[in-house]
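Memo to structure team: turn this sequence into structure tokens by end of day. - J.P.
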Amino acid sequence: MKQEEALRMVNISKYFPGVKALDRVTFTVNQGEVHALVGENGAGKSTLMKILAGALQPDEGEIYLEGEKVFIPTPQSAWERGISIIYQELNLLPDLNVVQNIFLGREHRGRLRVLSYSTMIREAESLLARVGVGIAPQTMVRNLSVAQQQQVEIAKALSLNAKILVMDEPTASLSETEVEKLFGIIRDLKSKGVTIVYISHRLEEVFRIADRVTVLKDGKCIGTYSIGELDRDKLVKLMVGRSFSETFPEKAKETGPMVVEVRNLSVPRILKNVNFSVRAGEIVGFFGLVGSGRTDLAKALFGFYPHYSGEIVVKGKTVKLHSPQRAIAEGVGFAPEDRKSEGLCLGLSVKDNCVMAVLDEMRSTFFLNRRRETGLVQKFVADLRIKTPHFYQRVQNLSGGNQQKVVLAKWLATRPDFLIFDEPTRGIDVGAKQEIYHLMRQLASQGKAILMISSELPEVIGMSDRIYVMHDGAIVREFGWGERVDEERIMYFAAGLHVER
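Reply from structure team:
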């Protein structure tokens, strides 16, 4: 039986100065389906959705909702027509509670226009129950986890009687358990007739949750496909023009001398007798479920936990990494999981971010040597192919992939021997991922020792020369050079089932 259309955007074009962001894009979504919208950064996904949300106006094209031609001049007009978007950067106010956020600007009032707070609480409780979350409506948003805030955003969308719900990178900051809960909510909304547009760079999620997929590339619609028509290799090729098999560069054939040895590293209540090593030219992958201690291990190696026991040996010398400053001095660089809050100063320029870890080296007597700064930044922008109109561009205006390259440039400026990458490709598109992978392998070929932490198993397997699996603060398995490894075996140990199959 043919499904009825919930949305049809026909021949949508949008121009910005010097850029054609959308070129006659047609996008059709059926009622009650989960429809994935995929493409590289800059493909036009966000522009198309902003037009649907009333935040931008198309230069050409038409929009139809349930077969009726509509004009959506403002976000409020979109809400009134049942269109709601949950952005990756959640739009809740932390100093208000859940009820106030859900009904902000649409507060219920009784007689004499007096605020009816009890009515809003009852409705909020009903909405929160519908998305399966046990949050008290009076809870302050600042006290909620990212997953709970996202659930509040969904409840807010339902309070607007959303018929079409757009989710932009909804799992970027969620654990595996939280992702499963979100998928349950999506399936429940779908069963109740809500139409979902799902935007994600995580292709494995697209195959798990979507009914159909539309691919955008360079502002054009490449096509719309049933999920059964695609596999990961074909989808990647549609998005970037290269197959998935070309994603990961060739692994190391040989390694150099030992760079880092960790012996019985323990941090009270966090890490338990961790032992591992990394050689020059080697990429060593770490995998574990949320709470396994993988990020805590990275932070311990970068001096975040001054009170540890055990030994850390860098290039044959036992070192005391009791602060990040000490770690940097010993040749350690750290690209953290949350690059926006921990790896970059978003309001500063590309230049300022690149040199901030080596400011002392940029000085001539008492003043910064601008020529030296510029030379250093020019080198990294060219070598890493950072796409920026100029060195003074604020980092917040760059794509996720280019922001990650700026983080990398900052640490390469310190001339490290040992680089730690925690979730190096989180939130960036397939094409940018491939660039980051090749950069990491290039650094390894230049003699750097690299530790990579990732929650994406294909990434861990595809990039790592050796793999360590963590569970409950300890390493429970090492997969060595040439050893058979697959996702099932790694997950078996990560789940704490320490018996070989």
